[in-house]
Amino acid sequence: MSTYTVAVRTLCAFTAREGDLDQGLGFGPSAQEGIEGHQWIASRRGEHYESEITLSADHGALHVRGRADGYDPRLGRLEEVKTFRGDLDRLPAQRRALHWAQARVYGAMLCQARGLESLRVALVYFDIDRQRETVIEQTHSAAELQSHLDRHCALFLAWAEQELAHRQARDAAMAALTFPHPQFRQGQRPLAEAVFRAAKSGRCLSVQAPTGIGKTVGTLFPLLKAMPGQQLDKIFYLTAKTPGRQLALHALGQLLPALDKPEPPLPPGTPRVLELTAREKACENPGAACRGDECPLAQGFYDRLPAARLQAVHRVRLDKTTLRGVALAHQVCPYYLAQELIPWSDVVVGDYNHYFDSSAVLRALAVEEDWRTALLVDEAHNLLDRARGMFSAELHGASLRSVRRATPRLKRSWDRIARAWQGWLKTRDATLAYQASDDLPDSLVEALRLSAADIADHLVHHPEALEGEVQQFFFDMLHVVRLADQFGPHSIVDLHQDLQAPTRDRMARCMLCIRNVVPAPFLRPSLALAHTATLFSATFGPPEFYADMLGLPDDRAHIDVESPFDAQQLEVHVARHISTRYNRRSASIAPMVALMARQYTQRPGNYLAFFSSFDYLDQVATAFATAWPDIPTWQQSRRMDESAREQFLARFEAGGQGIAFAVLGGAFAEGIDLPGNRLIGAFVATLGLPQINPVNEQFRERLESLFGRGYDYTYLYPGLQKVVQAAGRVIRTTQDEGSIHLIDDRYARPDVQALLPVWWDVPGRHTATSS
Predict the structure, then answer these.
(1) DSSP count for the chain of H helices, then E strands
(2) What is the pTM of this model?
């Protein structure tokens, strides 16, 4: 008889919750703070205290397992530790009932394991900001605790049997899965084989593979096939942007045609696919708190969840639209229904932050459930900047002044922060617009930490105060505190001062930032947690750069998939006579306009011209339109909404003519598909190097000290990656033909040409290399 394994927390979450959804105010402890809170409690117990005790119990086909937080054999007391922020007396009753359910299940398993006749069971609530614990204790006989465990197991058993049957059918179906097309595209088979080998050996794989080979299908197919053999519980497909999620869902529809069936019944074993979206995009009642007293979809959420969950798991494909339909049919919140469905899904498609962020739900569940997971990180070159953002935090002095006026009841807390901030500023040079440091402002961080507790207490009693600027500043200060606890050589502290601001209040014109430079220490544990991880992109090199920056393991594998495109498909031109350096841009405009017009008149069609900034773009676009008014032009603007972006792309009609002006690294430089003659050429009027400014110079210095490659890691590699991404818009299929003009004399340098795709026939590359 097969056994279904379930974690204690999952069991109790399934069987012991009722009533309203109550997500508090969103400022509870992070996962890292929770770990530190548990460590604090354990460090203050006696030498006989046992921490993280592995326990298990069986009930029919059900195997329950988990780790109890602590046990003191001398006191005969088992402890379940919960970290919190705010007023403990305001903890919702249903949440405390869930905590007791977990503690009693652990108690029952401990009594079984140790042969105990009775046990003291305690909930230990630890105030993460005040470093203070509150203990609530009950005493139970072993029989009472066993009855409690049996009751929860009985409530879960039917679901467990359903899940066992699904897993067995899923594994059988995936073992028999066939490739959805008559044959692999060129380069697609080597990619799929490499992903399968990485899954089989439990390794990390980095892949650089050109556009057009079908990377999405080529990475998903081998992992679906590997699910039974490698006993994979989940596949997490992570993307940087919404279009990436749509491509993944489309590819899964090709691989698993049953996903697109509108209604059950479905073929047995079809993997359940879940799409995660951001809360603000899934919310049906913006502005309402996620509590039953404010949102009707939170009211009675857990009472209606079982029916919604049961219907959802039989829909198989739970994209945003389908999920919303199920949620509203049962009057539950779509966003939190998606969170509840993660444990029962086989493939989860979401954003990078759903797994890599410090509060990421997928990573937290993977740890708790001990899942055997496979990661697919799409367009992985984007992970560097996204991760830097996740692990950086800003605090604005002007905002502190504003929130102090908005919430006078919190004046004492705001003043404590202001005094510490002003004290720190006295140690900084008042005449510099920017300055960086390797040292944290410890007194300010401590003031933020102490004030967080008082502010949280107030906000629990007055939730209406947590809105707008108050909410943003409070969350920002919590983020600063959390990052301060993990500060190291991977980050810097910098201070920005607006010396031109019309105020003499120095604090009001400054911004403090803990700025991440190397996210590797934060990402490495998340990558190691997965059984296998594949990171892939059309621009994912040099491999050592991304390994250093993203924390890829030493035993990783790397493949550079050969392009299916022929050099004859793409004419590559290098404009050595033009310099796009900042101090020579005025002189570059006239020859650039002439070059673009000459190419267009020789072969009319649709072109994209990329520039390093909107200012540069505007100058060239204006000059071009003046000199060549008969050639259609359109351009990207600074703040284009989704409708404007769609209109911009809609002008690239098959057989159309004109030149579109866009910014390198922007919305139209990657992730768009214009095959055939919808786009026949590109002009890249920049080397793509990030701007030389004080922040980037700090990055260069830090990366030089860590890796000895400061310039390359800060400027050259990120710049050329954007160039190749933009140029990659031209050739999308083996039938496409087009041209690229690389406009800058530095494109003639061997070190730059070495970073361009090997299949490009770059003028002078082979000569420069051989010499």
Answers:
(1) 28, 24
(2) 0.93
